[in-house]
Design goal:
Elements (H helix, E strand, L loop, with lengths): L16 H10 L7 E13 L4 E4 L2 H4 L7 H6 L1 E12 L2 E2 L5 H11 L6 E3 L10 H13 L4 E5 L10 H8 L10 E5 L13 E7 L3 H4 L3 E10 L4 E8 L4 H4 L1
Parallel strand pairs: 3-5
Antiparallel strand pairs: 1-2, 1-3, 3-4, 6-7, 8-9, 9-10
Length: about 240
């Protein structure tokens, strides 16, 4: 049995029955139990050419159940990037590069399953980062995840290696950085918006009385009215105050 959980531990298994099938098809015969860290992405899939185009997240969110019409309308693909548990053993203390190597060994790529593409950097390379980011955005991705793999690093002992490159669950780790197009000066498009509504946030934001997310709108000159376009969140505490 395969169960699918969101990062908030919501069980989405019934919403993506095809994903369970893809996982079982991709695993090797030696895999008896596993926990993957991965992303389910809506794609336009041309099976005859073996090519895929990522669809906007809004398309994926329309998947409401296991009905075949929903599955046919929005096809999905799994992009796996980490292996946390395998055959009864936790891999949380294993360095990332070893976890990723093991993931690639025990799960093969199929039409419905792929390993996240990566580019190795031994030192900071601004030009390569920008080129890789541009390609990722062109392919339909939000941006890049920059992670320390630990490969080539010789820790003085196993405890240091674990704390330095092991998997940290339930937290924003210092071992990785999210790089999106709008984080880079000169890359993002700009638009003037007006706040028209807000909700009280959850967790830390609720405790501090912050309003988050905030609903924004643009002015429709033809209709003479404001039209909502997006909710935004993840601002700094200073902005909320």
């Amino acid at each position: 049995t395969v169960r699918l959980f969101s990062r908030h531990l919501l069980d989405n298994s019934e919403q993506f029955p095809d994903v369970a099938e893809y996982l079982l098809q991709a695993r090797s015969d030696s895999v008896r139990s596993f926990i993957l860290d991965s992303e389910i992405v809506g794609v336009y899939m041309d099976a005859t050419k073996g090519k895929f185009r990522m669809l906007p997240f809004q398309d994926l969110s329309t998947r409401r159940g296991s009905q075949s019409v929903e599955r046919d309308r929005v096809q999905v693909r799994i992009y796996a990037f980490d292996l946390l548990y395998l055959n009864g053993e936790s891999l949380l203390k294993v360095p990332f590069w070893k976890r990723r190597k093991l993931l690639q060994e025990v799960f093969k790529e199929t039409l419905g399953f792929a390993h996240a593409q990566s580019v190795g950097l031994a030192t900071f390379d601004d030009e390569l980062l920008r080129a890789t980011l541009e390609q990722a955005v062109t392919d339909g991705a939000e941006g890049l995840m920059i992670k320390l793999t630990g490969e080539g690093y010789h820790a003085p002992n196993a405890d240091v290696s674990c704390r330095t490159f092991g998997y940290e669950s339930g937290t924003r780790s210092q071992l990785w950085l999210k790089l999106k197009r709008d984080y880079v000066v000169g890359y993002a498009d700009t638009i003037d918006v007006v706040p028209i509504g807000a909700w009280y946030g959850n967790g830390r934001k609720a405790q501090k009385g912050f309003l988050s997310p905030i609903l924004f709108a643009v002015y429709d000159e033809d209709e003479g009215a404001f039209r909502s376009i997006s909710r935004c969140m993840s601002f700094t505490d200073a902005m909320y105050q």
